[in-house]
């Protein structure tokens, strides 16, 4: 006959949720989205061979997609080192 082993339920302490992005990350990603929106808006002109359709919009889209959005994803705020605590004087 097989033996049933009861596992002890370990009391799991719920750690506070850690969000992967801070406020600065969302701001940087928002700036990237503004670049992308501006790029598509610049592309929507009636002139096919214009400056904004052939030059400006690809630069805005490339900057938004390949530079600013990845910076917003990988950006991590540098933590300030805490000063060493001094011993209290008697």
Total number of beta strands: 0
Contiguous runs where pLDDT drops below 50 for at least 5 residues: none
Helix share, percent: 40-55%
Query: Helix- and strand-based class?
Result: mainly alpha
Q: Please report the number of helical segments.
A: 2
The radius of gyration computed from the alpha-carbon positions, rounded to a whole number of angstroms, is: 26 Å
Oligomer: single chain
Q: Write the H/E string, N to C.
A: HH
Largest sheet composition: none
Coarse shape: flat
Textual characterization of the structure:
With about 90 residues, the chain is mostly helical. The protein has helices spanning about 25-45, 50-75. The protein is flat, with a radius of gyration of 26 Å. About 5% of the residues are buried.
Give a quick set of tags describing it.
90 residues; mainly alpha; 50% helix; 0% strand
């Amino acid at each position: 006959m097989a033996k049933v082993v009861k596992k002890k339920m370990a009391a799991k302490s719920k750690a506070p949720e850690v969000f992967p992005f801070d406020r600065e990350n969302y701001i940087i990603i928002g700036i990237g989205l503004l670049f992308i929106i501006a790029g598509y808006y610049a592309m929507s002109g009636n002139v096919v061979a214009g400056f904004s359709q052939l030059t400006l919009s690809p630069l805005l889209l490339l900057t938004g997609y390949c530079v600013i959005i990845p910076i917003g994803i990988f950006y991590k705020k540098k933590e300030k080192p805490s000063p060493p605590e001094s011993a209290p004087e008697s």
